[in-house]
Design brief:
Elements (H helix, E strand, L loop, with lengths): L1 H15 L15 H9 L4 E5 L3 H6 L6 E2 L2 H6 L11 E5 L5
Parallel strand pairs: 1-2, 1-3
């Protein structure tokens, strides 16, 4: 259920134009290996941890910012990044 909610929030924000993964690339799912390769190449990324803040405090990807999906849904302005930035979202999936 959480994974579905997370997906719906992210998809809704994309439809509203609040988030663009990149001006040149459409939305897509990344594998862990693809993300690691992007990080290894030091590509400019904004990594958003959309899990609850307590889970972010326990462990997160280095450099990720915490913007829980409930907060994004209530205030899309939290995603104030330029549309040219690649934005990677991750959450905890099903629980």
């Amino acid at each position: 259920m959480k994974k579905l909610r997370c997906f719906l929030v992210m998809f809704g924000l994309l439809l509203l134009g609040a988030v663009a993964v990149s001006a040149a690339e459409p939305y897509k799912n990344l594998t862990l290996q693809e993300l690691k390769a992007m990080l290894d190449r030091r590509e400019p990324l904004v990594i958003v941890d959309s899990r609850p803040s307590a889970e972010y405090r326990e462990a997160h990807i280095i450099g990720a910012v915490s913007i829980p999906y409930n907060d994004m849904a209530a205030n899309p302005a939290l995603l104030h990044y330029p549309t040219s930035d690649k934005i990677v979202f991750y959450c905890n999936g099903f629980s």
